[in-house]
User: Fold this.
Amino acid sequence: MNADEPIMSRTLPKALSADARQAGTKNAAAAADDIALALARHLRDREELLFTSRSISIGEMASTLAHEINQPVGTIVNVLRGVSARLARLPVAAEHQAQLDDLHQGLKLALDQAQFAGRIVGRIREFTQARQPEHKPLDLRALALECVALLDWEFTRQGVPVATEMPVPFWVVGDTVMLQQVVVNLLRNALQAHRGLPAQQAQVVLRLQALGEAEVELAIVDQGCGISGSAEGKLFVPFQSSKPDGMGIGLNICRSFVELHQGRLWFTHNPAPPGGCTFHLALRTTAAG
Ligand SMILES: Nc1ncnc2c1ncn2[C@@H]1O[C@H](COP(=O)(O)OP(=O)(O)O)[C@@H](O)[C@H]1O
Ligand SMILES: [Mg+2]
Assistant:
């Protein structure tokens, strides 16, 4: 392109240049208005097109990633199962039994995590194939206990004890994987809120109780750093994280999932000491499944 060409014909696409030529017959002010309007329209259309194509590519990327990740995750699950089975058949001297039990325990943990990852990936694939979330009766107590078991190792490693106060089961209707993701996210946030605090202060409690006539509430109570007034407003805003390794989308996803279940998710401050905060998840109950 010639650098001496008028700016207008360099920046405007062909159709617009034609507009501009046509506009030459009108008076100069009206022509300038027409061109400005056409240019604005063109820029807006291009922006919308860009946004749409970006959303489509993100959808495609998610679906491709889910497909690709599914393969190695499946292999990991199979390998872990195979190793577990072989270990179980090994003749072992009594003095080595305790070590073998440790190995089994480690393998089981790894297998649980790999299967959990597999279910998340499976769920992403279902999403991208536009399937509806499942709606079936599930025991929220069993689900919460499974989430605690999934993160047990992380809690132990960080020296944060977890206690559960869930005397009776509560049945709700929903999607197991989505609700599992919500509880795991909330538990992980509670755990991370203890980073850098004195070990004796650390404690996370999961409490399951009836809320009125028709709801059950799962409360995740921590004694972590708490949430400051300024952080409160940004809590559910995507990509807002106070952690160096945080993505800041966990709570946002949690809330969408909970709302899909016609449930509620909110938080309260715990009185100091020891402080910290409580995340509350409320879901409608159903008859035992
Ligand atoms: N239990 C909690 N205690 C203190 N702060 C919390 C807690 N849960 C969430 N937050 C705050 O909310 C922010 C957003 O959380 P989240 O959406 O899960 O993203 P991420 O964990 O990746 O930062 C966190 O960075 C943290 O500042
Ligand atoms: Mg998080």
In short: The pocket of adenosine-5'-diphosphate (ligand 1) is lined by residues 185, 189-190, 193, 222, 224-227, 231, 235, 241-243, 246-252, 277 (CB under 6 Å). The longest helix spans residues 28-89.
